[in-house]
Amino acid sequence: MMFLQILFTLSFLFSSSNALDFCVADLNAPQGPVGYSCKKAEAVTVEDFVFSGLRAAGNTSNLKKSVLRPAASNQLPGVNGLGISAVRLDFAVGGRTAMHTHPEATEVVVVIQGTLVGGFISSANKVYLKSLKEGDVMVFPQGLMHFQINIGESQALAFGCLSSASPSVYFMDYAWFANDLPTHILQETTFLDPDQIKKLKGVLGGTG
């Protein structure tokens, strides 16, 4: 009988009613390695779980003719700690996302409008490449370099979902050519011609 009483007490103490359902980001607090600290429960509202910033098309008047807009913990505090976020990808004709990676997130992309080529490169240096039409879905595994290109004759639109509430993005071209890494170091490590390197640095804002 005593055992049943103890079991009942423990089940009450650790019941789902006492569990933390969510941890809405306190954007006024610093962000740590595992995300933001939790906003006080009494300050949480439904607006913390809603974001309307992906409704309209983004401005694709840029070098890549594309724009990526996230709905991550900074824009949608309710996803903090839940391991998920979203992104809208708009492409003008010929638009593309440069080769990039998300070091801590897998991405699933669904094409809503237009035709894209999506691809990624495995750690074994194998290329996985596919033409994607409206309704097609492609997964880009965590940490692998990947890209999308609009190969159609009209605007393209896709939405992505990532397995992190605050996914980082690492662009290869900016990592090489948008900083002050000396040209001779890039030449030695990439086998590119110095004039090419300096031209790309000029386009992307790098020096050295």
From TrEMBL:
Signal peptide interval: 1-19
Keyword Manganese annotated: yes
Compartment(s) of residence: Secreted, Extracellular space, Apoplast
GO cellular component: apoplast; extracellular matrix
Binding positions (oxalate): H102, E107
Main localisation: secreted
Gene Ontology terms for molecular function: manganese ion binding
Classification via InterPro entries: Cupin_1, Germin, Germin_Mn-BS, RmlC-like_jellyroll, RmlC_Cupin_sf
Keyword Secreted: yes
Disulfide bridge positions per record: C23-C38
Binding annotation for Mn(2+): H100, H102, E107, H146
Annotated family: Belongs to the germin family.
Name used for this protein in its record: Germin-like protein
Source species: Hibiscus trionum (Flower of an hour)
